[in-house]
Amino acid sequence: LLCSLFFEGGKMRGSFKGFLAIVAVSIAAALLLLLQLRSPWEISAAHFRLLPEDEQFRFSERIPGGDGHGWRCLENCSSSQQRILEQGGRQYVQSTLEEFADGSQDRSPELRSPSLNLKHRDSGSDKQRYFEFLKRDASPYHDWNLFQRDYNEMIEKFRVFVYPEVYAKGKAFSKVFGPHRNPFDPKLGNYFSEHMFKLNLLNSSFLTSNPDEAHFFFLPFSVNALRNDPRVRTDESIADFVAHYVNKISMQFEHWNRSQGTDHFYACCHSVGRNAASKVPFLQRNSVQVVCSASYYHKFYVPHKDIAMPQIWPRGAEISIVPPRKRTRLAFYAGRAQNSRVRGRLLDMWKNDSDMDIHSGSIHGSYEEAFQNSKFCLHVKGYEVNTARIADAIHFGCVPVIISDHYDLPFGNVLDWEQFSIILSHVDIPSLKSILLSVSDNNYRRLHKNVCQVRKHFQWQVVPSEFDSFYMTMHQLWLRRHFVRSLQHPWTANNIAF
Predict the structure, then answer these.
(1) Which of 169, 219, 361, 406 could form a disulfide with 296 if both were Cys (CB 3.0 to 4.6 A apart)?
(2) Which pTM value belongs to this model?
(3) Which residue has the higher pLDDT, 368 or 22?
């Protein structure tokens, strides 16, 4: 069409040289256009690095045409770096760069290949493809530099106001609002994180006595203490108690009414905590829940508004981590199957396996030694999506295997969980052993190294240390400060819900 127009224009002007010049320009423009519209499989390495990781793998694998092998090295890769053969429907990877797998050289950013350990792969096996794919950057963080900048800003600027009931001693419910006298009491068990968070917050530099400079307001009631108080105890009574308390602070302070609870939060590690706010719609819809039972499946938990806090048991003295080469057992799990079909299925299929220690209930030997002697330690959904087994595994340097659908994993916007754990679905239980065995030694060492790197994020201490569970949880709150919306008019309250 362009040539016709130019031809007609040239005739009208009567200039043959002008016509030739126009045609030459048109041809050059067409060639440039063709170069820009080249097949998406010819994507450049620069663009490749900007793609999501699943797209990166797709572009390095499914290449139509060519030599028929089904794989193509990306830009700047030579045939000596990667040769692909197909034999009998299986794809074999051969490379002269196997030293990259053990970290002895830096991998070229332009090279993305499947596993370099020469093991065969079934082309249809998504799980095996996932485990054999080696990332160039094996960091357990999505973006450490970005996280550190946010973290430092939080330390400098973040302020929290705590309602005064927390300081009232000798009152009827002072144990409900105040810090626990002995949070390291082994009887607290699953609720240790709830009490340690409050204790750390009350002794931190984040507190302010001036509510006007606060980013958030802490509701200091303890669901665990309410559960153990004979005057309350039941789910219904706990919900009534919380509703009465919120009504009280809304009459005494202007802060709740100003935002209908959007800049308020409470912490809870008891499973009944999700119902604690059931009689206060604004508390349930607007306020931030800092909870251990963080499940996408439950309607009262709202991802990106609420916060998943790690469930951790009290710890003793620091331990030395057993290196990978001394971990002789493939996998370990011990737990009841009560109220969990997922656990029941795991036990039925694998409790008699000779390579894995899968136990129903408690074990006869040392629980700690079982974690230290195993390569992988299983967290399997029970009544809730969360248990302390993930933190136990990380504490003992055992790579967690997480079998818990709908679990919003703690600190997921900072930590890249796939770089230090294996996340499976409930339907993967029949393939559990083959999946674990498919993890190469090099990949396992990478996972183990990253587990050791994130251990500090899963620890509670009387005096918090940098990047521990308390500071990581506060960072999650800090990230949510932008959601706070102050009401200018009371009639806009219904528009505040997330």
Answers:
(1) 406
(2) 0.71
(3) 368
